[in-house]
Amino acid sequence: MTxxxxxxxxxxxxxxxxxxxxxxxxxxxxxxxxPSPPAKEAAACAALDRLLPDTVAGQQRxxxxxxxPLTARWGAGDAxxxxxxxxxxxxxxxxxKYPGVEVEGVSWTVQTRSQGPRFxxxxxxxxxxxxxxxxxxxxxxxxxxxxxxxGKTIPKTLDVP
Length: 161
Fold this sequence. Notes:
This protein is α+β, with helices and mostly antiparallel strands.
């Protein structure tokens, strides 16, 4: 594990970090809504965060604001990949019209969006969501680096054949 993935023990506001770094607010990382799961799920998400890769699909990790172990980000624009852990149970996971894919032992629901695919873990809680840019419209291979971390930290809720 590299130190670039570790969260600091003290979380500062984005404004404080920008002021300390001498940056303007226009340099700030994009905002991502942070889920608010129950404590047990938040602990699983924090464990997942510690195992997430530094790069995914050639994109470097650059976490969004506000700093949280429930969110992570790689890339930008059409190559952006945003992970949110501990989201509420999405209706899509039970809707048979949404296709599914299994990668590295983790099942995902695939939702097509104009901004790029949305992947949501199935048969595990807490739920993990990956919002991706249009570059990944037909590419589920970006899920591969998430298989081992999700498999080790996010408990299965149902055994699937």
